[in-house]
Design goal:
Length: 283
Amino acid sequence: MKSNQEIKDIVMQKYAEIALQDKTSNLSSCCGAGGCTTEVYNIMSDNYEKLQGYNPEADLGLGCGLPTEFAFIKEGSVVLDMGSGAGNDAFIARSLTGVSGKVIGVDFTDVMISKARLNAEKLGFNNVEFRHGDIENLPINTETVDIVVSNCVLNLVPDKRRAFSEMYRVLKKGGHFSISDVVLKGKLPEGLQTAAEMYAGCVAGAMQKDEYLEIIKETGFKNIKVQKEKVINIPDDILTNYLAADEMALYHANKNIIYSITVYGEKATEAISDTVTKYLAVK
Protein backbone atom coordinates (compact mmCIF):
# COMPACT_ATOMS: atom_id res chain seq x y z
CA MET A 1 0.00 0.00 0.00
CA LYS A 2 1.49 3.35 -1.07
CA SER A 3 1.59 6.20 1.43
CA ASN A 4 -0.27 9.44 0.77
CA GLN A 5 3.00 11.23 0.00
CA GLU A 6 4.10 8.47 -2.39
CA ILE A 7 0.80 8.82 -4.26
CA LYS A 8 1.22 12.59 -4.46
CA ASP A 9 4.77 12.22 -5.75
CA ILE A 10 3.61 9.79 -8.46
CA VAL A 11 0.82 12.11 -9.57
CA MET A 12 3.06 15.19 -9.53
CA GLN A 13 5.73 13.47 -11.63
CA LYS A 14 3.24 12.12 -14.15
CA TYR A 15 1.42 15.43 -14.55
CA ALA A 16 4.68 17.30 -15.02
CA GLU A 17 5.39 14.89 -17.90
CA ILE A 18 1.84 15.31 -19.25
CA ALA A 19 2.21 19.09 -19.31
CA LEU A 20 5.06 18.67 -21.79
CA GLN A 21 3.22 16.17 -24.03
CA ASP A 22 1.10 17.13 -27.01
CA LYS A 23 -2.67 16.82 -26.73
CA THR A 24 -2.82 13.86 -29.13
CA SER A 25 -0.70 11.76 -26.77
CA ASN A 26 -2.93 12.70 -23.83
CA LEU A 27 -6.15 11.94 -25.68
CA SER A 28 -4.97 8.48 -26.67
CA SER A 29 -4.31 7.39 -23.10
CA CYS A 30 -5.98 7.33 -19.70
CA CYS A 31 -6.00 10.99 -18.64
CA GLY A 32 -2.65 11.29 -20.40
CA ALA A 33 -0.99 8.91 -17.95
CA GLY A 34 0.62 6.52 -20.41
CA GLY A 35 -0.19 3.17 -21.98
CA CYS A 36 -1.26 4.74 -25.26
CA THR A 37 -4.01 3.00 -27.13
CA THR A 38 -4.08 2.27 -30.84
CA GLU A 39 -7.76 3.23 -30.71
CA VAL A 40 -6.95 6.93 -30.73
CA TYR A 41 -9.90 8.68 -29.11
CA ASN A 42 -10.54 10.50 -25.87
CA ILE A 43 -11.28 7.80 -23.31
CA MET A 44 -12.59 10.03 -20.57
CA SER A 45 -13.13 13.68 -21.34
CA ASP A 46 -15.95 15.44 -23.15
CA ASN A 47 -15.54 17.83 -26.05
CA TYR A 48 -15.03 21.46 -25.02
CA GLU A 49 -14.64 22.94 -28.47
CA LYS A 50 -18.16 24.42 -28.75
CA LEU A 51 -18.06 26.09 -25.32
CA GLN A 52 -17.57 29.83 -25.03
CA GLY A 53 -14.11 30.71 -23.79
CA TYR A 54 -12.51 27.52 -25.08
CA ASN A 55 -8.77 27.85 -25.71
CA PRO A 56 -7.08 24.94 -27.51
CA GLU A 57 -3.66 25.64 -25.96
CA ALA A 58 -5.14 25.17 -22.48
CA ASP A 59 -6.91 21.92 -23.33
CA LEU A 60 -4.63 18.96 -22.59
CA GLY A 61 -7.48 16.44 -22.81
CA LEU A 62 -7.22 15.51 -19.13
CA GLY A 63 -10.79 15.95 -17.91
CA CYS A 64 -13.64 13.49 -17.52
CA GLY A 65 -16.59 15.85 -17.91
CA LEU A 66 -17.72 19.45 -18.39
CA PRO A 67 -18.25 20.75 -14.84
CA THR A 68 -18.45 24.41 -15.90
CA GLU A 69 -21.48 23.55 -18.05
CA PHE A 70 -23.39 22.50 -14.91
CA ALA A 71 -22.00 25.03 -12.42
CA PHE A 72 -24.54 27.87 -12.87
CA ILE A 73 -21.75 30.43 -13.14
CA LYS A 74 -23.07 33.99 -13.27
CA GLU A 75 -21.47 37.28 -14.20
CA GLY A 76 -19.44 38.65 -11.31
CA SER A 77 -18.95 35.27 -9.60
CA VAL A 78 -15.71 34.30 -7.86
CA VAL A 79 -14.87 30.82 -9.13
CA LEU A 80 -12.23 28.39 -7.88
CA ASP A 81 -10.91 25.64 -10.17
CA MET A 82 -9.35 22.90 -8.02
CA GLY A 83 -6.59 21.19 -10.00
CA SER A 84 -6.58 23.74 -12.78
CA GLY A 85 -3.92 22.20 -15.04
CA ALA A 86 -3.15 24.38 -18.06
CA GLY A 87 -6.25 26.53 -17.42
CA ASN A 88 -8.92 24.96 -19.63
CA ASP A 89 -11.83 25.02 -17.16
CA ALA A 90 -10.66 28.31 -15.65
CA PHE A 91 -10.88 30.04 -19.02
CA ILE A 92 -14.33 28.59 -19.70
CA ALA A 93 -15.42 29.84 -16.26
CA ARG A 94 -13.95 33.27 -16.98
CA SER A 95 -16.10 33.59 -20.10
CA LEU A 96 -19.14 33.23 -17.81
CA THR A 97 -18.02 35.45 -14.90
CA GLY A 98 -17.06 38.24 -17.28
CA VAL A 99 -14.63 41.03 -16.43
CA SER A 100 -16.49 41.78 -13.18
CA GLY A 101 -15.82 38.27 -11.82
CA LYS A 102 -12.68 36.42 -10.85
CA VAL A 103 -11.33 32.93 -11.43
CA ILE A 104 -8.64 31.32 -9.28
CA GLY A 105 -6.96 28.11 -10.36
CA VAL A 106 -4.99 25.98 -7.89
CA ASP A 107 -2.59 23.22 -8.93
CA PHE A 108 0.38 21.55 -7.24
CA THR A 109 2.41 20.92 -10.41
CA ASP A 110 4.87 23.72 -11.17
CA VAL A 111 4.93 23.04 -14.90
CA MET A 112 1.12 23.18 -15.11
CA ILE A 113 1.02 26.49 -13.23
CA SER A 114 3.63 27.96 -15.58
CA LYS A 115 1.69 26.73 -18.61
CA ALA A 116 -1.60 28.15 -17.29
CA ARG A 117 -0.05 31.54 -16.46
CA LEU A 118 1.48 31.75 -19.94
CA ASN A 119 -1.89 30.96 -21.50
CA ALA A 120 -3.61 33.64 -19.39
CA GLU A 121 -0.95 36.17 -20.37
CA LYS A 122 -1.42 35.37 -24.07
CA LEU A 123 -5.17 35.88 -23.69
CA GLY A 124 -4.74 39.15 -21.81
CA PHE A 125 -6.84 38.01 -18.83
CA ASN A 126 -6.15 40.03 -15.68
CA ASN A 127 -8.95 38.46 -13.62
CA VAL A 128 -7.71 34.85 -13.89
CA GLU A 129 -5.08 33.88 -11.33
CA PHE A 130 -3.19 30.62 -10.93
CA ARG A 131 -1.79 29.68 -7.52
CA HIS A 132 0.58 26.89 -6.64
CA GLY A 133 -0.92 24.78 -3.86
CA ASP A 134 -2.29 21.48 -2.60
CA ILE A 135 -6.07 21.07 -2.71
CA GLU A 136 -5.88 19.30 0.64
CA ASN A 137 -4.63 22.64 2.00
CA LEU A 138 -5.96 25.33 -0.31
CA PRO A 139 -4.14 28.69 -0.50
CA ILE A 140 -7.54 30.42 -0.37
CA ASN A 141 -9.12 32.41 2.46
CA THR A 142 -12.20 31.04 4.24
CA GLU A 143 -15.61 31.82 2.68
CA THR A 144 -14.31 33.87 -0.25
CA VAL A 145 -15.49 31.76 -3.22
CA ASP A 146 -18.97 31.60 -4.82
CA ILE A 147 -18.48 28.48 -6.94
CA VAL A 148 -15.98 25.61 -7.05
CA VAL A 149 -15.37 23.54 -10.17
CA SER A 150 -12.97 20.64 -10.59
CA ASN A 151 -12.40 18.23 -13.45
CA CYS A 152 -11.05 14.72 -12.84
CA VAL A 153 -8.87 15.75 -9.90
CA LEU A 154 -10.45 14.71 -6.58
CA ASN A 155 -9.88 11.03 -7.44
CA LEU A 156 -6.13 11.79 -7.48
CA VAL A 157 -6.15 13.09 -3.91
CA PRO A 158 -5.23 10.58 -1.17
CA ASP A 159 -7.30 12.31 1.56
CA LYS A 160 -10.57 13.05 -0.18
CA ARG A 161 -12.34 13.98 3.05
CA ARG A 162 -9.84 16.75 3.66
CA ALA A 163 -10.14 17.97 0.07
CA PHE A 164 -13.93 18.22 0.32
CA SER A 165 -13.58 19.90 3.73
CA GLU A 166 -11.25 22.46 2.16
CA MET A 167 -13.79 23.02 -0.61
CA TYR A 168 -16.48 23.58 2.04
CA ARG A 169 -14.24 25.97 3.98
CA VAL A 170 -13.46 28.32 1.08
CA LEU A 171 -17.03 28.49 -0.23
CA LYS A 172 -19.22 31.31 0.95
CA LYS A 173 -22.39 30.32 2.82
CA GLY A 174 -24.90 29.37 0.13
CA GLY A 175 -22.12 28.76 -2.42
CA HIS A 176 -22.00 25.61 -4.50
CA PHE A 177 -19.76 23.29 -6.49
CA SER A 178 -19.92 21.24 -9.69
CA ILE A 179 -17.19 18.63 -10.08
CA SER A 180 -16.53 15.91 -12.62
CA ASP A 181 -14.70 12.88 -11.31
CA VAL A 182 -14.07 9.17 -11.73
CA VAL A 183 -15.79 6.70 -9.40
CA LEU A 184 -16.30 2.94 -9.26
CA LYS A 185 -19.25 0.59 -9.14
CA GLY A 186 -17.54 -2.67 -8.27
CA LYS A 187 -13.98 -3.83 -7.68
CA LEU A 188 -11.08 -2.99 -9.96
CA PRO A 189 -8.69 -5.80 -10.92
CA GLU A 190 -5.55 -5.81 -8.78
CA GLY A 191 -3.33 -4.80 -11.70
CA LEU A 192 -5.21 -1.53 -12.17
CA GLN A 193 -5.29 -0.80 -8.44
CA THR A 194 -1.52 -0.90 -8.04
CA ALA A 195 -0.15 0.55 -11.31
CA ALA A 196 1.55 3.92 -10.86
CA GLU A 197 0.22 5.13 -14.21
CA MET A 198 -3.31 4.34 -13.09
CA TYR A 199 -2.94 6.63 -10.08
CA ALA A 200 -2.16 9.49 -12.43
CA GLY A 201 -4.66 8.08 -14.92
CA CYS A 202 -7.64 8.82 -12.69
CA VAL A 203 -8.45 5.14 -12.07
CA ALA A 204 -6.44 3.60 -9.21
CA GLY A 205 -7.33 6.41 -6.81
CA ALA A 206 -11.05 6.31 -7.57
CA MET A 207 -13.41 5.18 -4.82
CA GLN A 208 -16.84 3.59 -4.84
CA LYS A 209 -19.57 5.98 -6.01
CA ASP A 210 -21.74 5.53 -2.90
CA GLU A 211 -18.77 6.18 -0.59
CA TYR A 212 -17.77 9.23 -2.62
CA LEU A 213 -21.23 10.75 -2.35
CA GLU A 214 -21.41 9.90 1.36
CA ILE A 215 -18.18 11.84 2.01
CA ILE A 216 -19.70 14.88 0.31
CA LYS A 217 -22.80 14.56 2.50
CA GLU A 218 -20.77 14.09 5.70
CA THR A 219 -18.73 17.19 4.88
CA GLY A 220 -21.92 19.22 5.26
CA PHE A 221 -23.01 19.84 1.67
CA LYS A 222 -26.73 19.90 0.88
CA ASN A 223 -28.88 19.33 -2.24
CA ILE A 224 -26.31 16.89 -3.64
CA LYS A 225 -27.20 15.77 -7.18
CA VAL A 226 -25.47 13.65 -9.81
CA GLN A 227 -25.85 15.87 -12.86
CA LYS A 228 -24.35 13.48 -15.41
CA GLU A 229 -22.97 9.95 -15.47
CA LYS A 230 -21.24 7.88 -18.13
CA VAL A 231 -19.39 4.57 -18.17
CA ILE A 232 -15.64 4.55 -18.93
CA ASN A 233 -14.34 1.50 -20.76
CA ILE A 234 -10.57 1.14 -21.02
CA PRO A 235 -9.44 -0.42 -24.34
CA ASP A 236 -7.75 -3.82 -24.30
CA ASP A 237 -4.44 -2.52 -25.57
CA ILE A 238 -4.13 -0.41 -22.43
CA LEU A 239 -5.43 -3.15 -20.15
CA THR A 240 -2.88 -5.69 -21.39
CA ASN A 241 -0.12 -3.52 -19.93
CA TYR A 242 -1.47 -4.15 -16.45
CA LEU A 243 -3.67 -7.26 -16.40
CA ALA A 244 -3.01 -10.96 -16.78
CA ALA A 245 -5.35 -13.04 -18.94
CA ASP A 246 -7.54 -14.12 -16.01
CA GLU A 247 -7.87 -10.51 -14.80
CA MET A 248 -8.77 -9.40 -18.33
CA ALA A 249 -11.55 -11.99 -18.42
CA LEU A 250 -12.82 -10.84 -15.04
CA TYR A 251 -12.76 -7.20 -16.12
CA HIS A 252 -14.75 -7.97 -19.28
CA ALA A 253 -17.29 -9.98 -17.32
CA ASN A 254 -17.91 -6.93 -15.12
CA LYS A 255 -17.02 -4.23 -17.57
CA ASN A 256 -19.16 -1.35 -16.29
CA ILE A 257 -17.01 -0.64 -13.24
CA ILE A 258 -15.46 2.77 -13.97
CA TYR A 259 -17.72 5.82 -14.31
CA SER A 260 -17.36 9.52 -14.87
CA ILE A 261 -19.85 11.52 -12.84
CA THR A 262 -20.55 15.22 -12.53
CA VAL A 263 -21.83 16.10 -9.05
CA TYR A 264 -23.44 19.27 -7.68
CA GLY A 265 -23.72 20.33 -4.04
CA GLU A 266 -24.39 23.45 -1.98
CA LYS A 267 -22.84 24.81 1.21
CA ALA A 268 -25.49 25.29 3.84
CA THR A 269 -26.10 28.78 5.18
CA GLU A 270 -25.84 27.61 8.81
CA ALA A 271 -22.70 27.08 10.92
CA ILE A 272 -19.66 25.25 9.60
CA SER A 273 -19.97 21.45 9.68
CA ASP A 274 -18.36 19.20 12.32
CA THR A 275 -16.27 17.47 9.63
CA VAL A 276 -14.75 20.75 8.46
CA THR A 277 -14.14 21.87 12.05
CA LYS A 278 -12.22 18.63 12.65
CA TYR A 279 -9.89 19.20 9.70
CA LEU A 280 -9.39 22.88 10.44
CA ALA A 281 -8.30 21.95 13.98
CA VAL A 282 -5.30 19.98 12.69
CA LYS A 283 -4.10 22.50 10.09
